[in-house]
Each structure stands twice: as structure tokens, then as C-alpha cells.
Automatic annotation (TrEMBL):
<keyword id="KW-0813">Transport</keyword>
<keyword id="KW-0472">Membrane</keyword>
<keyword id="KW-1003">Cell membrane</keyword>
<feature type="transmembrane region" description="Helical">
    <location>
        <begin position="65"/>
        <end position="87"/>
    </location>
</feature>
<keyword id="KW-1133">Transmembrane helix</keyword>
<feature type="transmembrane region" description="Helical">
    <location>
        <begin position="155"/>
        <end position="179"/>
    </location>
</feature>
<feature type="transmembrane region" description="Helical">
    <location>
        <begin position="199"/>
        <end position="222"/>
    </location>
</feature>
<comment type="similarity">
    <text>Belongs to the binding-protein-dependent transport system permease family. CysTW subfamily.</text>
</comment>
<feature type="transmembrane region" description="Helical">
    <location>
        <begin position="93"/>
        <end position="115"/>
    </location>
</feature>
<keyword id="KW-0812">Transmembrane</keyword>
<feature type="domain" description="ABC transmembrane type-1">
    <location>
        <begin position="24"/>
        <end position="218"/>
    </location>
</feature>
<dbReference type="Pfam" id="PF00528">
    <property type="entry name" value="BPD_transp_1"/>
</dbReference>
<dbReference type="InterPro" id="IPR000515">
    <property type="entry name" value="MetI-like"/>
</dbReference>
<dbReference type="GO" id="GO:0048473">
    <property type="term" value="P:D-methionine transmembrane transport"/>
</dbReference>
<feature type="transmembrane region" description="Helical">
    <location>
        <begin position="28"/>
        <end position="53"/>
    </location>
</feature>
<dbReference type="InterPro" id="IPR051322">
    <property type="entry name" value="AA_ABC_Transporter_Permease"/>
</dbReference>
<dbReference type="InterPro" id="IPR035906">
    <property type="entry name" value="MetI-like_sf"/>
</dbReference>
Length: 228
């Protein structure tokens, strides 16, 4: 980009606007789908981790040990290696190993176990007295989970979803390395292989703006939900 003027760089970026919009849409698909699935299933797993822990609603030492180690194992997988390892499963489930939907499956699995740990930590911050009070009034375990634990931890949960979504956004850029599409794929094809540094700079700027927007929105919602 050193030999380019600013006007030439802008002209190059403008000429690619169609591909940039398409890549941005693919990124939204990947992050949106994976955040949704990781939040739903990660919440269920996180709740299960919490309630089976010592001194909790459904204490089970063996089950908690197994779940805890599975979460630790999956979180230890580097994302790129996980993408490669899941190629057969992705092909079987999605029917393809390339494209944003295929990448969403791997992103969902990666985010699921990460979010489960965040959910567990959020639930641990709920005062035990609140749980005991609900139990003494005859609330069922399911009601305690739904109306006490998740309700009391909702502000922290929103913050955790924000962290998850931002993390998956960065992973979605890496997904472009093996055909996931999106902004990462565009940066690699044009910025790296064709030495168009201005493309990389522009895409990084888009990603920074997205992170700022997501974090600001998440913080705003969490403050509204925080009853403290």
C-alpha cells in the first residue's frame, strides 16, 4: 500500500463494495447462528454443571466430574484444529465443508463449551440465600433454575453473551482460512494473496467497529437488567 495514494486505496475498496457487502453478510450469518446455538446449548450445559456441583440442587460427583472434564477438553482445542477435526461431522450434518453455514457448526461447538463455563461462573455469583429462600417456600428445582438462578444472573449472562459473540466474530475471521467465507476470507484472498494491504486495513477497521458496537450494546442491556 506504500505505493498507493489514499485516493487510489479508496477507489480499490469502492470497486470491491459488492464483495465486501457479501462477506459482511456471511460474517453475520456465521456469528448470528453460532451465537444463538452456543447460547442455547451452552446455557443448558452450564446450568447442568452448576446444579451437579457440590452443595447444589442435584449434586452428582461423577456426572459433574465427567461434564467438567469434557468442557475442559473441548476448550483446550485450538479453533483451526477443531475445524479440521470436525470436517467429517460438518459434511454429514450440513452436506458441505465450506461456506458460512458449515463454519457456523464448528463455531457453535467451539462457543458452546466456552459459554457453558461462563454460565456456570455467573450462576455461582447468585447469593446462596436467595436459592435457599426459594427452596424453603416450596419452589421446585426447575422453578429455582428458571425463576431464581437465571433471573438473578441475567445481567451477567448478557455480558457473557457479548463476550461470546465478540469471540466468535474473531473466530469467524479465522474460519475464512478453510473456506468459511466472510470478512476473514476476503482479507486472505485480497489482502494476503494479492498483497492489497488496504483491504486488510479496511476489514480490520470494520471488525473493530463491530466489536465496539457489540460491546456497547451488551453493556447497555446489562446495565438495564442489573438490579443491584
Amino acid at each position: 500500500m506504500a505505493d498507493l495514494t489514499f485516493a487510489q486505496a479508496v477507489q480499490n475498496i469502492t470497486a470491491m463494495r459488492g464483495e465486501i457487502v457479501q462477506a459482511l453478510w456471511e460474517t453475520f450469518i456465521m456469528v448470528g447462528l453460532s451465537t444463538t446455538f452456543a447460547t442455547v446449548f451452552g446455557t443448558a450445559l452450564g446450568v447442568l454443571l452448576f446444579v451437579t456441583a457440590n452443595r447444589q440442587l442435584h449434586y452428582s460427583r461423577k456426572l459433574n466430574f465427567v461434564l467438567d472434564n469434557i468442557v475442559n477438553l473441548m476448550r483446550a482445542f485450538p479453533f483451526v484444529i477443531l475445524m479440521i477435526a470436525m470436517i467429517p461431522a460438518t459434511r454429514a450434518i450440513v452436506g458441505s465443508t465450506i461456506g458460512p453455514v458449515a463454519a457456523s457448526l464448528v463455531l457453535s461447538v467451539s462457543g458452546l463449551f466456552y459459554f457453558a463455563r461462563l454460565v456456570e461462573q455467573n450462576l455461582r455469583e447468585v447469593p446462596r440465600g436467595v436459592i435457599e429462600a426459594a427452596s424453603s417456600m416450596g419452589a421446585t428445582p426447575l422453578a429455582i433454575i428458571r425463576k431464581v438462578l437465571l433471573n438473578e444472573a441475567r445481567a451477567g449472562m448478557v455480558s457473557s453473551i457479548t463476550v461470546l459473540a465478540i469471540g466468535l466474530l474473531s473466530y469467524s475471521a479465522a474460519a475464512g482460512m478453510i473456506g468459511g467465507g466472510g470478512l476473514g476470507d476476503l482479507a486472505i484472498r485480497y489482502g494476503y494473496y494479492r498483497y492489497q494491504t488496504e483491504v486488510i486495513i479496511f476489514i480490520v477497521a470494520i471488525l473493530v467497529l463491530l466489536v465496539i458496537l457489540m460491546q456497547t450494546t451488551g453493556n447497555f442491556i446489562a446495565r438495564k437488567l442489573d438490579k443491584r
